Amino acid sequence: MPYRDGMSARTRSEERRAEIVRAALEVIAERGYRGASLAAVAERVGLTQQGLLHHFPTKDALLVAVLEERDQWDAVPDSRWRLDLLASLVEYNAMRPGIIQTFSALLGESVTEGHPAREYFTERYTGVRASMAGILRAEYGDRLPGGLTPERAAPLLVAVMDGLQYQWLLDPESVDMPGAFRAFLTLLGEPDGPDPAGTPAELPD
Length: 205
Known about the structure:
The protein is mainly alpha-helical and about 200 residues long. About 70% of the residues lie in helices and about 0% in strands. It has helices at about 5-35, 40-45, 50-55, 60-75, 85-95, 95-110, 120-140, 150-170, 175-190. Helix 1 (about 5-35) packs across helix 6, helix 5 runs antiparallel to helix 9 and helix 6 (about 95-110) crosses helix 8 (about 150-170). The longest helix is centred in the first third of the chain and has 33 residues, at about 5-35. The radius of gyration is 20 Å and the shape is elongated. It starts with a helix and ends in a 17-residue tail after the last helix.
């Protein structure tokens, strides 16, 4: 096979895989992981189930691809996060309800024994708590105004972010997710010094 033809085939395969992952995100958001069948995903992209299995041999393999895709959208080096940027992330999440719905559906199901995403979420939260502790330490030092250490406050910060997502998904007209998160940040108290960056809040590139 000529080199150019080989590249074209790989490109088409990658595009098809991306299309399948997007369809899987939609189906999982609608039905949850256990209710989402490979046949339903295949139908949404105009494939037979056998055709889908050519790209993803198992349902678990497709789930891993969905989770990896979601992580790519939020990938930012820990060193570039600040509390004000977390508030910007919450605002950004409010503009993509489908992604948040899929993530929340998988998170809720993953607490059951034997769920294929359980290990992923367990490891993810270990890393997220460490990242949040680092953000809080950079903002406040070794103690927050209320006396908590960053490590003790980090799980609370994570709980607020994810808990607000569930409330917002259930009743978006009543729950102002970005506003509620900003209100929570005021409860943490003001840092001792000015923002060392000295720049307005914006999402990192």
